[in-house]
Structures are given as structure tokens and as C-alpha cells.
Amino acid sequence: MGQALCICLRSAITIDNKRYYFIQKLEEGGFSYVDLVEGAHDGRFYALKRILCHDREGRKEAQTEVEMHRLFNHPNILSLTAHTFMERGGKCEAWLLLPYISMGSLWSVLEKLRDKGSSMPESRILHILHGISEGLKAIHDKGYAHRDLKPTNVLLDENDRPLLMDLGSMNKARIEVRGSREAMTVQDWAAQRCTISYRAPELFNVESHCIIDERTDIWSLGCVLYCMMMLEGPYDLIFQKGDSVALAVQNPVSIPQPFYLYSAFHDTNRCKATLQKIKFLQYLVVAYQW
């Protein structure tokens, strides 16, 4: 992992001629850091995502993430407040200034429920599912796919409104694969950018002549729905045990007993009716041929 440019306690940074004060670190990943900063001009908190750009390709990918944010103005997609590229001593970072959502991610909410031995109410699941679906619909309507939908990439605000984040894996929804070389390129890309336990089956073994489209997001959406009900993804344990997720996704998922606590999903007909109430999820019903 490369070293990030140092931001010291209470030091000030400037983006688009506005000053922001560093408060604390929030997250640290392999190629990015997220800091909590405060706007000197408005006193509001923001999340500053700093992406390490090791080369020209890395800078291009960061620029693509910026462009994806700017493409959307939707209540269920995290907005981009400002951005800049910082270069010091031969190092380059992309700084993305984002709204700070204090509730955190959907995954952090689910973890707290699991720790308390509780579960998420059916009405809350459907509310969050509806918002995620609306965000996906906006992305798909523009001809793109998210490609890395998972509970850690969904934020929840104080009103339980879900916001899709981490748009760095987004690309054109429809990818036409022509030949084994292109198939391997797509497969390698998916291995790097699409989280394994939420990755659609067609991305594990890409066929030589096929079309990859936005239905990869629908698979991930189904895994997120499962996670909200079970407090863990359908393939999380398989991955944690070191077993083959690629093999597991080819077979039906066994539904644990707690699933039946959710009356809306208890029988197939009612499950259909519930999903049909969420306009975009008609796609889910058709895609899985219920």
C-alpha cells in the first residue's frame, strides 16, 4: 500500500477556494483514505475521500469516479460536493469531498443489529430496498451499471434514506464480449473491482461470446436483500471459510429458518406482489423467472 500525503490534526486544506479543517480519520483502505473534515465557511462536516493514484491509469480511474458522481443528481446516489487532484513530491491523490453521513453504512447498521441479537423489521427492509432500487434505476437509465453493490457501499441517512456510494467500479452497462481475450479481460477486471461475495455468476467465468449487462447489479441487489434479512450475505461464510464462491453461485441458496419471520417473503405469490409494489423490482421478478 502506498503512503498518503500527510494531513495533520486541525490542518487546513483548500478545495475550490474553500477551506476545510481536518477532524479525524474515518476509514483506511488499500488505495484510499476517508477523513472527516469541517467546512470553515459553513461549519458543516464532510467526508474527504483521498484516492492514491500510483500511475496514469490510477488517475484516469479516479477521474472516472468523479465523472460518475457528476452524472447524477438523485436522492439515492451520494453527491459530490467538490474535488481536486493534489500532487506533491511525485505523489498524486484525488480528493473527493462528499457529504458526511453520520449514520454510516447499511453494513454497520446490520452489524449492530446482529450484535444485539436483533433483526431488521420487514417494513424497514422494504423501505431501504426501495431506495436502493431507485438509485440503481437512475444509474441503469443512464446506460451504466454500478458493478459493486454491497451493504458497505450503501449509506443510510438519519431518515433511513439509502445512498449508493463508491462509484469507482461503474462502467457502461452493456459490454459485448467478442472472443476469449476480451472475456479474460472482463473477468480479470471483475476480479479486481467487484466484491467476490456479491459478484454475479456471469462475471466469474465470462463466456467468449456474450453480453454482460446491468443484470449483474440485480444479482448483487438480491444478495443485499438477503443480507438485510439474515444479517449476513448469502456467500459471506463460504468466502470466509475459503471455499469457492464461484462454484457456490452456480447452485441454489439454502434459506435459513429466520427467513420465514418475514411474512412478505414467506410464499412466492406474496413475494411477487410485494416486489411489484416497487416499480423497478418488476425487473427482478422477470429476471429470475418466478
TrEMBL record:
Keyword Aminoacyl-tRNA synthetase (UniProt): no
Keyword Repressor: no
Enzyme class: transferase
The entry's keywords: ATP-binding, Kinase, Nucleotide-binding, Serine/threonine-protein kinase, Transferase
Family annotation (InterPro entries): Kinase-like_dom_sf, Prot_kinase_dom, Ser/Thr-specific_kinases, Ser/Thr_kinase_AS
Gene Ontology MF term list: ATP binding; protein serine/threonine kinase activity
SMART domains: S_TKc (SM00220)
Top-level lineage group: Eukaryota
EC number(s) given by UniProt: 2.7.11.1
A GO cellular component entry from the record: Golgi apparatus
Residue span, Protein kinase domain: 20-290
Pfam families per UniProt: Pkinase
Reaction equations catalysed: L-seryl-[protein] + ATP = O-phospho-L-seryl-[protein] + ADP + H(+); L-threonyl-[protein] + ATP = O-phospho-L-threonyl-[protein] + ADP + H(+)
Protein name: non-specific serine/threonine protein kinase
Organism, as annotated: Sinocyclocheilus rhinocerous
